[in-house]
Amino acid sequence: xxxxxxxxxxxxxxxxxxxxxxxxxxxxxxxxxxxxVLDLEEAKDLTQQAFLQAFIHIRxxxxxxxxxxxxxxxxxxxxxxxxxxxxxxGEPTDFQEMPLPSEETPDDTxxxxxxxxxxxAALGRLPAKQxxxxxxxxxxxxxxxxxxxxLGGSAGAARVNYCQALKTLKKHLHSEDNHExxxxxxxxxxxxxxxx
Length: 196
Description:
Blueprint: H1 3-11, H2 15-37, H3 40-57, H4 67-86, H5 106-124, H6 128-139, H7 144-151, H8 155-174, H9 186-194
Helix pairs in contact: 1-2, 2-3, 2-4, 2-6, 3-4, 4-7, 5-8, 5-9, 6-8, 7-8
């Protein structure tokens, strides 16, 4: 069933239709929350809060964007509110709990784990809005126009934030003693380690 059809039914009070939307987007929203708040347990709570807000306000959804984009906006607002209330970015994510991509050899797995650890640590040093832009662009595959609808502002501003975030990521990775990962293309590394 398509999103518009499910949204129509959910707006009429059909709970199973809304549950289908939750199943469809739960993993994406949780991944987004993980990248923004860098706390796996808080990300679970924020994911639930985002879907609760979406359920409460589903009748207000006017289809000026895709449902997915509207849902990302709600999730990001929940994350921003959490970060604002906390007044700091929190402890680093426990990278051991983050899923690894499947690899062919143990050596490849160790390299991927180290790349992931270094990239997530560098992501954790970015401002929340830059983390959001990187996540939406690389992991969710949104265009700059879609990102601007999720985060507010223009597509040009989203592109500038993305470019600045990549530049800062490269700088953080390059500043480490062993900067082999920094010499690679950040989008390629991010795409490889975010596959599930």
